[in-house]
Amino acid sequence: MLAAGGAAVGFIVTGITAGGVNRADAWVVGLRTTLDSGATISGTGIVLTASGQVVTTYGVVDGAVSIAADVNGGSRYAASTFALDPSSDVAVLQLLNAADLRSASIGNPSELGLGDAVTAIGLSGGTAVDSPGTVAGLGSTTDAALSGTSNAPTLNGLIESDALLPANGDGGPLVDQSGNVLGLDTGNSGTTPTLAIPINRVISIVRDVDASTPDPAILQGHGAYLGIDVQDSAAQSGARVMDVSPGTPAAIVGIAPADTIVSIDGVPVDSIRALRLILARYRGGDHVVVGWVDPQGQRHSATTQLAAATFT
Q1: 88: which DSSP letter?
Q2: Which of 43, 124, 239, 304 is the Cys-Cys partner for 171 at CB 3.0 to 4.6 Å?
Q3: Domain segments of the chain as ranges
Q4: Contact partners, residue 233, CB within 8 Å, separation at least 6
């Protein structure tokens, strides 16, 4: 379940009193999503639990085939899509093999008033970048084009501020003067006003997901991937690796281009089709033993946690 921990330490954010902010660079996540077209999307997320549950906007991960997450300016994880709510523009992710992360402190957006000081935060180059402003509206509605998804929803009841959304700030936090998260920023970087989904609405979605509460609007993560592009191997039986996406399960265990996948959990892999059929038996989050052969003919095996396939 949710952890709202994270003691206030002296992270200086422009427009916010130093020493009063929950250290944002410890719980703000930089996300890099690779699409099936090969294009990439950069955005931001918020760590909710020490075990790596993260929320961001659906637009940041819409159509993903792999998601890499950078935390604390250096630690990289593969991110799995745990659940998606396109109608609310909310995505719940799980950082694979994460532990002991600092989580965000959750504020109460119902206490906000017009003119209150707030800050929108994005993560760029591993550094938390802030944009201060004030609350300009409560109960605002998006222009549907803002979220940039393939099926962009119109969102109501949003927090509006005159803060400029930082670069890659979509999915990042809107915080109060103490660094408590008030909302999930949604929109295209550089736009003003900044609109944010109230965090209590986001937390309600997360709680439903954690409790497995049936909701037809929420897509639960399913399917599994290693994060590699492959072709049938001409040199030997197996699936030859052409590319490995950074931060994915394959990258974590050291699989590299020109390696050949030859087994999953001891089951032989003799082709791309065989690899896909085997992986179809698993779900994101499952642990498997991958066997592969490098270009020098050396055999390797390692256990990795599969990421969940996303939805398009």
Answers
A1: G
A2: 43
A3: 8-103, 109-198, 224-308
A4: 239, 240, 260
19 Cβ contact list (under 8 Å, min separation 6): 8, 9, 10
Tokens of 60: 């940041």
- Sequence-distant (6+) residues with CB within 8 A of 216 are none
CATH fold label, 8-103: Thrombin, subunit H (2.40.10)
Distance from C-alpha of 15 to C-alpha of 12, rounded to nearest angstrom: 9
Phi-psi region of 285 (alpha: psi -120 to 50; beta: other; left: phi over 0): left
Give the CA-trace dihedral at 181, 156, 67, 228, to 10 degrees.
Answer: 170
d(CA 309, CA 273): 17
Distances (CA, A) of 96 to 35, 134, 203, 211: 19, 36, 21, 20
- Which residues, 6 or more positions from 94, have their beta carbon under 8 angstroms from its beta carbon? 52, 53, 54, 79, 80, 82, 221, 285, 308
**C-alpha span between 86 and 73 (Å, rounded):** 29
Beta bridge mates, 106? 181
Q: Which class would CATH give 224-308? A: mainly beta
Identify the sign of the CA torsion 122, 124, 127, 132: negative
In the prediction, which pLDDT does 278 show?
A: 84
Q: Which residue has the tokens 């991960």?
A: 61
- For CA atoms 60, 249, 81, 228, the dihedral sign is positive
